[in-house]
């Protein structure tokens, strides 16, 4: 969805501005061109020690790093036929908190342990002078682990975290007792503490990952200036986190567009290619082709309106 588009397009744009950029995501698939770095780290997840490996490829100036662990690849590839977040839409896998705890911890290790030399401008590990951009609730433990594990040891002294909200409706609300799974000091409890009127997953008191991500990060961002206004405008629009966001402040930076991906001169999905000078001739032809394909009356003078968004209550 939108998060995928942002992570596809924004990092190459940042790299083009001279930044050294790494994305870190779960290895849900046998991604083409992403090779095993043979670097492993051990992380405490729940009450177990888990080993993760890092896979890597370098594209358009960006180090694409994938966290390899059975909780990601085997779960999604084999057993669930590519359901990433839960067995059915809107339902969490029972171990989602452990899965995303693993992702957050792995993301904190990657800049330190991966010795990456694909770029002609940068070489070696990224080191500790970095900015983490955490996206949505799944990454909300990152600023917490940064403060709990690394900063007390004098690591990542100058590192900062920006927390970016793509969709406020998904917050990672779980039973309050589950806080123990996260291996965080008790002083973080208040950042997670959340009470709502719903019975799922339990009644009343919960932990809320996104609340903690907002409170523990250095800066809170979202995907447009208007969405930033909307999130603080009411309880409904902010889905009960509006007061927390008003407290921290939020900055909306409008989602850009990847002009390599969305280029009508090179688009492999269209039969007629065009640019600014030929658009008026090409578009009516493409419209007719679309109308024919989907069974609409073929008429180049009728407007066709495209809507990209969710069909959701």
UniProtKB/TrEMBL annotation:
Single biological process term from Gene Ontology: starch biosynthetic process
Which pathway, metabolic or otherwise, does it act in? Glycan biosynthesis; starch biosynthesis
Which InterPro entries does this UniProt record tie to the protein? Answer: Starch_synth_cat_dom
The residues that cross the membrane are none
Looking at the record's lineage, which domain of life comes first? Eukaryota
Segments forming a coiled coil: none
Annotated Gene Ontology MF terms? glycosyltransferase activity
Q: Which UniProt keywords apply?
A: Glycosyltransferase, Starch biosynthesis, Transferase
Asked if the Swiss-Prot or TrEMBL record annotates the protein with the keyword Transferase, the reply is yes
Residue intervals of the Starch synthase catalytic domain: 1-247
Question: What is the designated name of this protein?
Answer: Granule-bound starch synthase
Native source organism of the sequence:
Vauquelinia californica
């Amino acid at each position: 969805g939108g998060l995928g588009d942002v992570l596809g397009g924004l990092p190459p744009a940042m790299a083009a501005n001279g930044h050294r950029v790494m994305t870190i995501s779960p290895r849900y698939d046998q991604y083409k061109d992403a090779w095993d770095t043979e670097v492993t780290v051990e992380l405490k997840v729940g009450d177990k020690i888990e080993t993760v490996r890092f896979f890597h490829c370098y594209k358009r100036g960006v180090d694409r790093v994938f966290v390899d662990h059975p909780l990601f690849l085997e779960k999604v590839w084999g057993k669930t036929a590519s359901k990433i977040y839960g067995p059915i839409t809107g339902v969490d896998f029972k171990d989602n908190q452990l899965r995303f705890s693993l992702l957050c911890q792995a993301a904190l290790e990657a800049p330190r342990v991966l010795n990456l030399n694909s770029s002609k401008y940068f070489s070696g590990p990224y080191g500790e002078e970095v900015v983490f951009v955490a996206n949505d609730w799944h990454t909300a433990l990152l600023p917490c682990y940064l403060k709990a594990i690394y900063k007390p040891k004098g690591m990542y002294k100058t590192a900062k975290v920006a927390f970016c909200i793509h969709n406020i409706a998904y917050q990672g609300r779980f039973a309050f007792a589950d806080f123990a799974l996260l291996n965080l000091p008790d002083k973080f409890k208040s950042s997670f503490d959340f009470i709502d009127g719903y019975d799922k997953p339990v009644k009343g008191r919960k932990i809320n990952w996104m609340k903690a991500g907002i409170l523990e990060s250095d800066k809170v961002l979202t995907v447009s200036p208007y969405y930033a206004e909307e999130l603080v405008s009411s309880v409904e629009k902010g889905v009960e986190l509006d007061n927390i966001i008003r407290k921290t402040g939020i900055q909306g930076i409008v989602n850009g567009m990847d002009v390599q991906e969305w280029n009508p001169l090179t688009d492999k999905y269209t039969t007629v290619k065009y640019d600014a000078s030929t658009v008026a001739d090409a578009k009516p032809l493409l419209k007719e082709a679309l109308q024919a394909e989907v069974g609409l009356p073929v008429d180049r003078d009728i407007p066709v309106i495209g809507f990209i968004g969710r069909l959701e209550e």
